[in-house]
Amino acid sequence: MLPILYAHPFSSYCQKVLTALYENGTPFEYRLLGPDDPATFEEFSAIWPIKRFPILVDRGQPIPEATIIIEYLGIHHPGPVRLIPTDPDKTLEVRMMDRFFDNYISTPQQKCVFDSIRTEGERDPYGVGEARKMLDAAYGWLDQRMQGREWATGDSFSLADCAAAPFLFYADWTHPIGKEFAHVRAYRKRLLARPSFARAVDEARPYRGFFPLGAPDRD
Ligand SMILES: N[C@@H](CCC(=O)N[C@@H](CS)C(=O)NCC(=O)O)C(=O)O
């Protein structure tokens, strides 16, 4: 039986896993979570009451969390592209960069987006201000780091790049990456040109109208 992925194409964390799956051409069954299919959503909620997607189910076992799914795929469904290196020190670096993109790009980006869909009285302008400051700090740190690097940890595309791709994609829509961060902008461009992520982006195009802050007419 194929591994089953519960996901939505427009979700950044789902795109992180889809990028890993497409990198290796890993076969899987896609169960799309959408408002038109409440039964699939109920099935998913029963498996993972935390209700955050994606989740993978393989051999009857649920595997939550995008990073863990990618680690799991590397162990149980390996392909030609090794997204977690074998060298332990390199692996630490890949995991550190994966944490960086989750915690300091995606988390503040989502804070801005989720705040915008709250009602006026429920908004948290202080928190959004802090999130925007975090994004600026993260862009600055990443810009220095990406000087002379093709991918997040050097020459090889890894788990960290699977995280970077969707998070920088949406971060730029949410809190534009300024011209002063030329290395980050160039890295985002390289990620968009990577066929695995380009496919995930293309599959999500029909949903762009749902981006709460308004999707820009590019990318
Ligand atoms: N820590 C989770 C985060 C997953 C997550 O936040 N997914 C979003 C979609 S991008 C979600 O489930 N949103 C549904 C909601 O907030 O109700 C992971 O790494 O997979």
List the helices and strands and how they pair.
Elements: E1 4-7, H1 12-24, E2 29-32, H2 38-47, E3 55-58, E4 61-64, H3 66-76, H4 88-116, H5 125-146, H6 159-174, H7 182-193, H8 195-204
Helix pairs in contact: 1-3, 1-6, 1-8, 4-5, 4-6, 5-7
The structure holds glutathione.
Strand content: 5-15%
Which strand order does the major sheet show?
2-1-3-4
Low-confidence parts: none
Give the radius of gyration: 17 Å
Hetero groups bound? glutathione
Order of helices and strands: EHEHEEHHHHHH
Description:
It is a single chain. This protein has a 4-stranded mixed sheet with strand order 2-1-3-4. α1 (12-24) packs antiparallel against α6 (159-174) and α4 (88-116) runs parallel beside α6. The chain has helices at 12-24, 38-47, 66-76, 88-116, 125-146, 159-174, 182-193, 195-204, and strands at 4-7, 29-32, 55-58, 61-64. It is globular. The mean pLDDT is 98. It has 8 helices and 4 strands; from the N terminus they run βαβαββαααααα. The longest helix has 29 residues, at 88-116. The protein is of the alpha+beta class and 219 residues long. Bound molecules: glutathione. The site of glutathione has 9 residues, from α1 and α3. Glutathione binds next to α1 and α3.
